[in-house]
Amino acid sequence: MKQQSGDKPCGSHELRCLHRRLVSTTLWLTGWLTLSGLHVRRPPSWLWLLRLLPLTAYLLVFLGAALLLISSPTEQQVVEGFSVYVFFLQTAVILVVFITKRNELDELDRQLEALSRHAACHNSTTRRRILIRIALFVLVAIINFILWIAYPIAIGNFTHGNYNFQMKIPDSMETPTSYWVCMFFQFVIIMLSCSLALAFDCCFFAWINSVEFHLTSVRRAIEKIDCKKSAKEAFVSQEESVQNILKLESVETRGKMPFQFESSETEGEVRTQTPKTIDGTITPKKPATGDVTVFLGSIPPEKERLPPEFADPAAALCSIDQHYRLITRLVSSINHLCGLPVLLTHAATMSNILFGLFASISLILRPVFVPGQDIHVMGYSMYIFIFFLRITFYSYDGGNIVEKNAAFVAALADMQWLELPERARLRRKAIMQKASQPLCINALGVFAINKINVLNIFSFVLTYLVIMIQMLTSVIGRLPSAK
Predict the structure, then answer these.
(1) How far is 329 from 111, CA to CA, in rounded Å?
(2) Mind telling me which GO cellular component terms the entry cites (predicted)?
(3) Closest CA to 334 of 437, 444, 408
């Protein structure tokens, strides 16, 4: 069922494997930036030793978080620390998943390769949308990285306590040299986390967009099937088209024609007609003697068969069934690989929104202005917006899969199935039974990724925002300095 999506045919294998090339390029760049070698299928022993560097860095980060919890932190430190460390936990899980589930990554690569043979190339509009989305992901990652780095420069004077994020170190290490070592270490962690988050966003989008593209392909293939034509009727109509060609390439004669045509015809093949004389000798393809002029056209030696979606509905539905089976396998592999990172992404977003709003409202409602307070609020707002934008992208793409699968089921239901042959009706019924099952991306089976999630998050945050404003207003109103 190749090239059924309605796009122009394309012989370039690279254009047909756009999603696969996007994933491989992302893993290659991330593998070098994070020293993890995510693009290597069978890593050697030295690469496993090199992977210990980012894993050890994350271990030190979480060790600093544990020291912060046992050192009686302030309320502001707890709020900032919790919102930050959930993001680090998410990126650390992405690193571990990509390293330990290399077989699942290879399986996804093979599935994308198999699906690329069942549809036409991406048109220019589709490629442009994919590249714009990737550019937007890169822009968000760069802004996030700049916010992290600019945080201590904007509100601090390079003194202890104004690191990029809250991290407790032993008192014996609180020296100017140790401070700069700690700053460099946090710079490495921030770059590592932003790179891993960007890699997961790009790969996750490429996998989901591939599902959307192929669901559109199978829907268009269903719409192209002519239910009123069986295989025999399609064959007859093609025979008539060949006869029309023969009529157009007519033989013009004047006077008596001293020869006759002999034609042989087999099923599925039409041979070139050859002029012969009465006694059986072959006449040359040039004007005959006398007043007879012969014009012989170039008749194709073999009849070109019609594509299966026009020739036989049963064969077309069988090919569509195979295509849809590959799509469902791809969705299942995506859920198996990305379930935990997607769940942690939603958890990190919710925690960052709630704790960021709590910290921002606390700073705004303070009776005494603190230097750097406005920078704090702006940083929190930008940080919240970035996380909310990521969840919006996830929900939008996941909702597109649900909608395109529903459109595919609707196209099957709209078929004039009573006019289909018996074998085609059985195949259509089998496809509808498969398509009736929910096809969606889920977060470790907890909930489905859909557009309604954005509304749920917005309503959840709005509810707690009202509660936090009332609570903080009453607390600050009882302070002595507020009078």
Answers:
(1) 8
(2) plasma membrane
(3) 444
